[in-house]
User: Fold these one by one.
Assistant:
Number 1:
Amino acid sequence: LSRPLGVREKPAVRHQTKLERLKEVLTNDEAIAEQRKHLVKEAVTKGYFHDLNATRRHGGKTWIAPKVLIREEKSLYFPDIVGKSLADGSEQHTTSMCTGKISVLCLLNTKISEIHVASFTTPTLARLSEHPLFNHIQINLQSNTLKSMLVSLFLSSLRRAIPPEQHPYYLVSSQNLEYQRDAIGLTNDRVGYVYLIDENLRIRWAGCADATAEEAHALEVCTDMLLARLEKRKKEKE
């Protein structure tokens, strides 16, 4: 991983409306430059077959996860994603769910992406899932309208497939991450992504596609380290 992933502004539950975004693009020089850069990148990389070919060539793996934590002062924020909880269909925001805890957050939308994230998270969950300051959040992200509708139709089968204790932490989202994709390294819709997020919503580690043994071990070690630090700070405040 050659750079810290994330956005520079701390996320909020309230999202920018389309009208607000349009006004910014038309009046803000930085936003205009960002829009131009985005359109050029989309023209080159957007599309189902681009993702499919990338997956065939190298398994969709676009970086190797770091062996150590990204330093706090260098780290960036994970953007807010809103989705419906598998537990009761209520609207939940990742910003609210992750604040004050150490979170392993997984983005997935295909069967292969589920296998990818499991290859990263299985050792970590086996040892740390019961920790009171730990979160494991899965987001079934379907920005394609048709796929989003199909997932909504099969929510009952999805509930049967996911263990009941995970339902409150499993979100189904159709949020458009068009302008955050590059920032968080989300370059291929067919693979899974895993982010380690600290209590202040900063991305401290990330991995994608199929995990190597070293990457899975790094996630476990880094998660354990963040939990120990947070636990220590809380005890010092008592």
Number 2:
Amino acid sequence: MNSMFSSSTLSCLPSLYNNPKPYKQLPHFSFTNHRLSSLSIQPTSTSRKSTVCAVPPSEGTVAVINFEDFVEKDWSFLDADDISTDEAYKQNIDRIISAGKVGDDSKILISTGSEQFVDRVVDTCSCKLLLVVHDSLFTLACIKEKYDTVKCWQGELIYVPEKWAPFDVVFLYFLPALPFELDQVFGALSKVCSQGARIVISHPKGRKMLEKQKADYPDVVVSGLPDKPTLESVVSHNSFTMVDFVDQPDFYIAVLEHTK
């Protein structure tokens, strides 16, 4: 298994899969990621315990981790709609993917994507590499359980290692979950994107649904979707140009090209 979730670290996160979730159970395996020592895990018993993970030198050193402090945010709302029964939702997802113009040699990065979105990318695209970046270990575990060839990295988008770069397509599937200024996001992406790379910012249900999500999940939805003037101003300072922009109540998409 060639990913940040390696078979050599399957005993590092005991009992994570027992953490109750509203829609599915976590697969029974665990992870290697760049910042485990700063994470916290919900306890599965009243006993206090800590764990030391031994990881390969190439994956970095992980210190003592107090699992009783780990709390996983609820990201289930990203998969609240069923792509198999909601035709309008499926069409919007396909429109988002099509905007990336993925080719057989493309290296794709998906930031904070839903499981269904990743499923659809895998089903409809042939590519050289697919990396999924997410804050949720639970979401990444479910993705990794289904797709061994998909690389998964737990952490913040602006800190993604350059070893997988340059990326030809970046899907910012849920930008409002990123706790960074737009200039930070596009400054970081400019360093890891190829010339001509396409950045697709999207919301398949648009601003109307985003407002509801922000009210229901304020700990996850920490910002909004940028309007056209704001986005144009920010991206132009980071070697991107806007090639498409649609901002409707029920659909949002902005497509950028890296000019550097």
Number 3:
Amino acid sequence: MSRPELQAPPEIYYGDIEAKKYTNNTRVQQIQAEMTYRALELLNLPPDEPAFLLDIGCGSGLSGEILDEEGYHWVGCDIAPSMLEVALEREVEGDLFLQDIGQGFGFRPGSFDGAISISVLQWLLNAETSHPTSSPPHRLTRFFTTLHAALKNPSRAVLQFYPSSDDQIQLITSIAQKAGFGGGVVVDYPNSKKARKVFLCLFVGGGGAGAQQQQVPKGLEGDEDAEARATFEKRRERLRAREKAGKRKNIKDRDWILKKKELYRKRGKEGVPHDSKYTGRKRKAVF
């Protein structure tokens, strides 16, 4: 079966049907959760401290949910409107932007404490037109140059992607280095065709809190399937525990409703009802 990035541009490939199918696939959910946890591990953020992260190619918010659970504030960008629409329907906490990352970012310099990206970078390796600005080197240069500017010093960016050849890895790493990044490639389970995962671990400045953090982390070895199942099952257990403890957003009280309405207004959603003394009022039972 042909790879998705070879079939159509992402904003076309992930239409309404494909976006919902992708999001509701439990296998996809497991893989996304596993790789997001691994990306956060490689990001090496200070423990028990708040951080503001950029989720590049956030899609429908599967990776953003992990960031929420870990206590991070985040902003997500994606080029597929249908994916972002699904994210809005799922009421993710992060702010969302419709953005072609190949054209670069427009964030204020030093805005983010770190950045992650899951299964996105390979989409920049295909030219959609013959125009010079559509060439992979040009788009990658815009991407890495503006990403470097948007990150604080020191910080890290961890980008998981699926290269089809070593030449693509070399192209991506060389352009990232020219943009000012340090770091390199981390390969998990390199001897497994099925479990092999490639992460680009990039440093801005020292890339961490000490000189020892400048070394590129080592890839994982061993039984990937067992580790992935354990991580995913632990997450499911945490969600069940929250539901039993009443910490999930099932009880929609006045404060919850006001918070969501304010979030929708900030995102420019039309038709948000006005606040009143009746907002969130518990209605009497009708017999």
